[in-house]
Amino acid sequence: MAGIMLSNCSRIIPRALTRITTSSRVRVARSLHQEGRILRLRTKCNITNEFKQVNTHPWSIQTRQIRSSQVLWEMKDVVVPPFADSISEGDVRWEKKAGDQVKEDDVICEIETDKTSVPVPAPGSGVIKEIFVEDGTTVKPGTKLCNIDIGATGGASSEPAAEAPKAAAAPPPPPPSAPTPAASAAPSPPPPAQAPAAPLPPPTRPPQASPTTSMPVAAIKHAQSLEGAKVQLPPTDYSREIIGTRTEQRVKMNRMRLRIAERLKDAQNTNAMLTTFNEIDMSHIMDFRKSHQDLFVKKYGIKMGFMSPFIAASSYALKDQPVVNAVIDGGDIVYRDYVDVSVAVATPKGLVVPVLRSVENKNFAEIEIALAAIGDKARKGKISVEDMDGGTFTISNGGVFGSLMGTPIINPPQSAILGMHGVFDRPIAVKGQVVIRPMMYVALTYDHRLIDGREAVVFLKKIKEAVEDPRIILAGL
């Protein structure tokens, strides 16, 4: 269906005719022309030649125009968007269903790939008419997903709003009618005459009592337990709760989780992983944060956390031990003259590792700003493949969940990963005295094929010294 739009000078033509079909438009235009109310017709359809200008008409100074528009009631197909070069396919996870009303840019489904989820927005406002692929289907770029009737209304989202006024508009029941004055004033009829009393029936014998049956106490308790029993339904989401129904649910593992499992197992099978530990006194960096937090927030608008000192310290230690920043590629060793730190972030869909680029040139504030941008993308689920591509070193902070100690797994194709853990007060010896200090265990897992024990221990010690006293980074010690 197409519409017509009239010019401002077309005051005679009714506005009710601004939305008609193509065939009806021809009939209306011919009728108006015969009545002398249209002098010239200009349209995108093939009806222009049917009407000529009437030079003898007294309204020849004005011009009436009818122009068609093709933007209303258009059916649009939604297809799978193009992926990054390293991704060829993904699985569909629907957020909407057929018959739902959507707005422009609403996410109607997501394509779960090996590395990230690609949202598919609605091209316009309308109603989803038909879905061509089922949930969980593997699709490739260009595959048709569904079609949307642009401009249509009356989808599922508008039904609850329409039902509420109907329920509110139900009229209250009518009040009971009061008796009329005429009825109350009418005289009451005289009472009927008493009939003669009937003879009493002969007395009957009382029925014999039936024998009573006894119920065991155990049976009574069992019946009471059955009355008080409750029927439990299985949980709606088995991954979030266990209520004791002794049932099971089997779900398909998403592609991101499958890819993470493959990469972790490949890392164990390929690398000769070895882990070394150390502990860091966090009292100095905590005092530093406390002293400069207000000024830092005032200037940059964000708070200083523990990640920025550790990322800066890791960059400082990587420049001191470049072999930790290198990687084995076949029979070669690739040394990289830049430091891109991957930060492990836990999301409901799996572990993602977005990358901070050129950390060797960033200070604490620049690192915190970059981390805030990554965190905002992670919360909104908008981390792209480009955000996770590359990386020369990884930091995983399990301390946010209260971890005391652990051994992280290398993130291929890297050669080392630093594991941060929780900060806990512990007694330590300082200059012959036992004192209580906030301490953190740190772990470095490295590929022993490339990195020797000496380089790994020196590297982790450099991180310890730089975190405990950030001034050595400025001094280059």
TrEMBL record:
Q: Which GO molecular function, any one, fits this protein according to its record?
A: dihydrolipoyllysine-residue succinyltransferase activity
Tell me its cofactors. (R)-lipoate
User: What are the recorded Gene Ontology BP terms?
Assistant: L-lysine catabolic process to acetyl-CoA via saccharopine; tricarboxylic acid cycle
- What are the alphabetically sorted keywords of the record? Acyltransferase, Lipoyl, Mitochondrion, Transferase, Transit peptide, Tricarboxylic acid cycle
Query: For the Lipoyl-binding domain, which residue ranges apply?
Result: 75-149
Q: State where it is primarily located.
A: mitochondrion
* Biochemical pathway: Amino-acid degradation; L-lysine degradation via saccharopine pathway; glutaryl-CoA from L-lysine: step 6/6
Q: Which Gene3D superfamilies match?
A: 2.40.50.100, Chloramphenicol acetyltransferase-like domain
Please give the start and end residues of each transmembrane region: none
Query: By its UniProt entry, which SUPFAM superfamilies does this protein fall under?
Result: CoA-dependent acyltransferases (SSF52777), Single hybrid motif (SSF51230)
EC numbers on record: 2.3.1.61
Protein location: Mitochondrion
Name the source's superkingdom: Eukaryota
Stretches of Low complexity bias are at 156-169
Region listing for Disordered, in residue ranges: 154-214
PROSITE patterns, per this entry? BIOTINYL_LIPOYL, LIPOYL
InterPro entries for this protein? 2-oxoA_DH_lipoyl-BS, 2-oxoacid_dehydrogenase, 2-oxoacid_DH_actylTfrase, Biotin_lipoyl, CAT-like_dom_sf, Single_hybrid_motif, SucB
**One GO CC term, this protein:** oxoglutarate dehydrogenase complex
| Composition bias, Pro residues | 170-179, 187-209
Q: What does this protein do?
A: Dihydrolipoamide succinyltransferase (E2) component of the 2-oxoglutarate dehydrogenase complex. The 2-oxoglutarate dehydrogenase complex catalyzes the overall conversion of 2-oxoglutarate to succinyl-CoA and CO(2). The 2-oxoglutarate dehydrogenase complex is mainly active in the mitochondrion. A fraction of the 2-oxoglutarate dehydrogenase complex also localizes in the nucleus and is required for lysine succinylation of histones: associates with KAT2A on chromatin and provides succinyl-CoA to histone succinyltransferase KAT2A.
Read off the NCBIfam families from this record.
PRK05704.1 (NF004309), sucB (TIGR01347)
| Family membership | Belongs to the 2-oxoacid dehydrogenase family.
Task: Name the chain's protein.
Answer: Dihydrolipoyllysine-residue succinyltransferase component of 2-oxoglutarate dehydrogenase complex, mitochondrial
Native species of this protein?
Aphidius gifuensis (Parasitoid wasp)
